[in-house]
Amino acid sequence: MTVKQYFTLVDTIARLSLKAEARRYYFGFWWWVIEPLLYVAVFYIVFEKFLGTRTQDFLMFLIVGKFTFIWFSKTVNYAGNSLMGNASLIGRMDLPKTLFPMAVVLECSYRQIAVFALLGVALIIDGYRPNGYWLWVLPLICVEALLIVLCGFIASVLVCMKRDFALLINLGMLFLLFMSGVFWDLNDIGNEATREAILLWNPVAFLLHSFRQVLLWQQTPDLGHLLGLTVFLSVGLVLVARGMSRYRYYLAQRVVTA
Amino acid sequence: MMPALKLTNVGMRFALNSGGDSGHFQALRELNLQVNRGDKLGLVGNNGAGKSTLLRIMAGIYNPGSGTVWRAPELSIALLSLGLGFKNDLTGRENALLAAVLQGMSKSEAKSHLNAIGEFTELGRFYDEPVKSYSSGMRTRLGFATGLLLDTDILLLDEILAVGDQSFRNKAREALAQKITADRTVILVHHIEHAIREICSRVVWLEQGQVKADGPTSEVLEAYLNSAN
Q1: Nearest by CB to B106, which of A8, A23, A252?
Q2: DSSP code at position B12
Q3: For residue A143, what are the domain limits?
Q4: Which of B69, B79, B101, B146 to mutate to test the interface with A (most CBs of A within 10 A)?
Q5: From residue B54, how far is each of A252, B5, B18, B147, B205 by CA, in Å?
Q6: A160: which of A123, A192, B30, B217 is 20 to 30 A away, CA to CA?
Q7: Exposed, middle or buried: residue A121 (CB in 10 Å: 0-12, 13-18, 19+)?
Q8: What are the pLDDT digits (tens) for A60-80?
Q9: Would the CB atoms of A86 and B106 count as touching at under 8 Å?
Q10: What CATH topology corresponds to B1-75+196-229?
Q11: Chain B contact set for A91 (CB, 8 A)
């Protein structure tokens, strides 16, 4: 299969899945923005109104964090089931096994375009004006996409090995929600070493923090960290993709006989 | 005779889901088989004899656990079976588009086939309805019509003539006959005896993952049917 065929297939599967999903619900495509808005509304009520958070401009702080987190969490969750969900196809054709999680990543990324557009509108309505720092959003999106693809590939293989991983990935996303500063500020951590450790070992926390730096606080993200993360994710992605290609027969057997 | 496929001492076993180190099912054992170019080969055997596993190994979906598989490098090979991974929420037309792209077509090329596929299936307005609303007969019609797009040198056919009512079955048989040209290698798995007699000149009888008999259709088929009775 050529690279062009691969991406034609990925794009076709992603677009058809989006159409099918929109057809399934009464509000159709509107759910792409309704869902993240509902999440933000609930978090806002709990943390701002009930608990009285001290974070400045908490609504925008929360929107930036939640909108970028939801892309990661939903995609990796869906990608985890992508190989098992295509068992009948995998049992009939020798297709690259990365195709299925990749199609999920693209499907969720198409949906995320609407979410990022909504984020931009929300920022402008709240009084933020586009500035040079906002350009950093593009490399940040690329690095988050790399992270999502890598985690999506790994999740699909793990669920293929043992179904239990689907539950663990779900729990992992909940764990990350609390550990990545979606609704609390990493700058509030008094212990510098703990803060640095979270940023170093949790790429989701680092990316969320970086998005806030460029969109809300007019700061440049930690470029050294960003570059290091890009290299690490790229190498990881090549290794995992090669592994999935090398063990494609084994994966097909696991999927078909599960 | 020029070989198209050669399987030497092929073995395949699967771990059973019940777990435990000893939980395995031996689907194929020490299987030797050569398929020559232009052969029309039928595969028969009881359920669990290893027919589907053998087709998947031939198609390159599985790698055998032991032994070797040689495929003529210049020949393309594909497995045609009904319901090529249909997605229930997609319409018949969308599934046909997906199936065509999966079979290597560009999107525009795939779109150019969609109306013809719709006409062949005789699904009418259901062609634009989600597949989840289809009867099993409608699904198999769509599966057959999308499968017909395959155009490879070696065609592996898995139970594809079990399609709906008699009139559609006749139409399907005619369409398939056009695909089965003299130079095309065909390997057919089918439970309907006369389909094998009609298409195949040679039959391989599999039993417990091994070749029990290999020879002219009438001879092997008769032995197989006698054993079943």
Answers
A1: A8
A2: E
A3: 3-257
A4: B101
A5: 14, 12, 23, 20, 12
A6: B30
A7: exposed
A8: 999 999 999 999 999 999 999
A9: no
A10: Rossmann fold (3.40.50)
A11: 56, 61
